[in-house]
Design goal:
The structure is a single chain. This protein has helices at 22-29, 45-51, 89-103, 117-130, 148-156, 201-214, 217-234, 257-260, 278-287, and strands at 2-6, 12-16, 72-77, 109-114, 137-141, 164-170, 188-192, 245-250, 271-273. With 292 residues, it is an alpha/beta fold. The N and C termini lie far apart (54 Å). The strands form 2 sheets. A 7-stranded parallel β-sheet has the order 5-6-4-7-8-3-9, with helices on both faces. It has a two-stranded antiparallel sheet with strand order 1-2.
């Protein structure tokens, strides 16, 4: 799609935007004898198969996880959301309360992922004002623009903290994929929201295009990419067969069928929690591993 738009400063943009890369990718891959595409988060597979130039008869392989599911607790919150229409101080305080209840049950390092830097700052302010216990825990924040040295320093903190360390990060950002914090360097991830991209002109173009192609424009433009970010962030917790940890999904939308049908097979076993039960459920999980 070729489109133009005016910027707020009066400048003018003309852009050639690739909405559907499948044709070009398919043309490239047909030059090879075979192509193998591999990722832990190629879900839902038909979505990626279409975008990456696959044909219906191409093989799909779902490799079973080698990790013991009992070593990871998956919690779904039933009484909080990040929907734009319901964002309010009340919802922000619920989220901050959940963070406190989950992280207080075992000393260790946690990553907390938010849909945006602005959302991160809002929750961080409330958490520091109402829940932070400076003697027991410390919070660090992902900056909006971080140089390589700052990134390394951020990750280095997860190897040397004497208190519980809470890393406030952005979902889909530099710390939600491609990092290995093994063993006790990370024991939990709290995912605030469903990862939906912000509404913008290009997302709406994608939505309109695939609405005509598949009658599922919203999923292609927003839900599928958002769920990919969720899976990437959740995958930071269990990196080896000896790791133990908790993954918490803080948005009631994860209980909807449209989201649960996007869960990987390893997520079949989960517990629904509320603010009244979050602490007890988390504590019960850690009791099984109190000597580890």
């Amino acid at each position: 799609i070729m489109y133009s738009e005016m910027e707020s400063d009066g400048s003018f943009i003309l852009k050639l935007f690739c909405v559907d890369p499948s044709v070009n990718l398919k043309e490239c891959m047909t030059r090879a004898r075979s192509s193998i595409l591999f990722s832990a988060t190629l879900l839902p597979i038909q979505y990626y198969k279409k975008l990456l130039g696959g044909e219906p008869e191409d093989y799909e392989v779902y490799a079973d996880s080698i990790f013991d599911p009992a070593r990871r607790a998956l919690f779904l919150a039933c009484d909080v959301t990040t929907k734009y229409s319901r964002r309010s101080l009340e919802e922000y305080e619920k989220i901050a309360s959940y963070i406190q209840q989950i992280t207080r049950q075992r000393k260790g390092n946690y990553l907390i992922f938010f849909p945006s830097h602005a959302f991160l700052q809002d929750i961080y302010g409330i958490y520091c004002d109402e829940y932070l216990d400076a003697e027991r825990e410390e919070c660090i924040l992902q900056e909006e623009y971080m140089k390589e040295e700052s990134r390394e320093e951020f990750l280095g903190r997860f190897a040397q903290s004497e208190k519980s360390l809470l890393g406030f990060c952005v979902m889909g950002g530099i710390f939600s994929e491609g990092i290995d914090l093994k063993a006790d360097r990370l024991i939990g991830a709290i995912l605030v929201g469903t990862g939906l991209p912000q509404v913008c002109n290009e997302r709406e173009m994608i939505s309109r295009f695939f609405e005509e192609e598949t009658q599922d424009g919203f999923s292609y433009a927003y839900q599928f990419p958002g769920m990919n970010k969720v899976l990437q962030a959740a995958g930071r917790v269990i990196r080896t067969s000896g790791d133990i940890g908790v993954v918490v999904l803080l948005d009631e939308r994860f209980r909807q069928r449209s989201y649960q049908q996007l869960f990987p097979k390893e997520w079949e076993s989960y517990r629904v929690i509320s603010r009244d039960t979050a602490a007890a459920e988390t504590r019960q999980f850690w009791q099984k591993w109190k000597d580890d």
